[in-house]
Write a structure and sequence with these properties.
single chain; about 240 residues; alpha/beta; TIM Barrel; two-stranded antiparallel ribbon; 8 helices
């Protein structure tokens, strides 16, 4: 991993955390040893936890989540995991009862990441299911205290304002430049302003492309993004970086 990642994750360490996004559906060949190796490399550069992105109805998820927790529990609180329920990646949104089942199954693990003793939970989208996460809604009522920081980027900073009572923060998926210009921090600052005192989770990524049938092909400008985007985290100073 680049030295800048090590330095910047350490710089953000005081009461702040840096996470790495892991798509569990891509880990079908992993065993506990592979998860342990990945966790060791991540921990050695100052990453605090893996965000386990889980698509609904993905058959790889149950076994690989179990493997990941078995591996992380060996670190005795020195490296953690938490769930990001992917509402678009599994063919159908997550039903509240299945979200509840996963959280209740793993909430007492020594490797589950907590914020102020509350379970950290995120999503990839899911704006059609916002009521599931209401303060006295089905998930919180069945699971207990959670620190909910979803990626509801499709709402935008203005749209998130109508849902501040359901969240403890928000994650922005907008971490790549649009067109030929470099990425700036204007979107990050707009999210921070909209969230007020709630937590902002800032995204950092290298270049990103997609090649798929059906015309879903794109390439987002990367170039030096991996370097200057990390430097931008110092300016934005979010509580969480993913």
């Amino acid at each position: 991993m680049p030295a800048i990642l090590h330095l910047l994750t350490r710089a953000l360490a005081a009461q702040k955390s840096v996470f790495a996004h892991v798509i569990v559906g891509n880990t079908a060949a992993h065993d506990v040893a592979a998860w342990t190796k990945d966790i060791s490399m991540a921990a050695n550069v100052g990453i605090d936890a893996f965000v386990l992105n889980m698509g609904h109805n993905d058959g790889n998820v149950p076994a690989q989540v179990a493997n990941a927790f078995q591996a992380a529990e060996q670190y005795r609180g020195q490296f953690d995991l938490f769930f990001a329920f992917d509402y678009l990646g599994g063919g159908s949104p997550w039903p509240a009862n299945e979200v509840i089942d996963y959280l209740n199954k793993y909430k007492n693990s020594t490797a589950y990441f907590k914020v102020d003793n509350k379970l950290m939970v995120s999503t990839f989208e899911g704006v059609g299911n916002t009521q599931d996460w209401a303060q006295y809604g089905p998930i919180r009522s069945a699971v207990g205290p959670i620190h909910f920081v979803p990626d509801w980027s499709s709402l935008g900073p203005n749209g998130i304002k109508a849902h501040l009572d359901k969240i403890e923060g928000a994650f922005s998926w907008d971490m790549w430049p649009n067109g030929a210009t470099d990425m700036d921090i204007s979107t990050d600052l707009a999210w921070q302003q909209a969230l007020g005192s709630k937590d902002y989770m800032m995204g950092v990524s290298p270049w990103f492309f997609r090649s798929a049938e059906g015309g879903k092909n794109w390439l987002w400008k990367g170039d030096d993004l991996w370097t200057y985007r990390w430097a931008q985290t110092i300016k934005v100073a979010p509580r969480f970086v993913q």
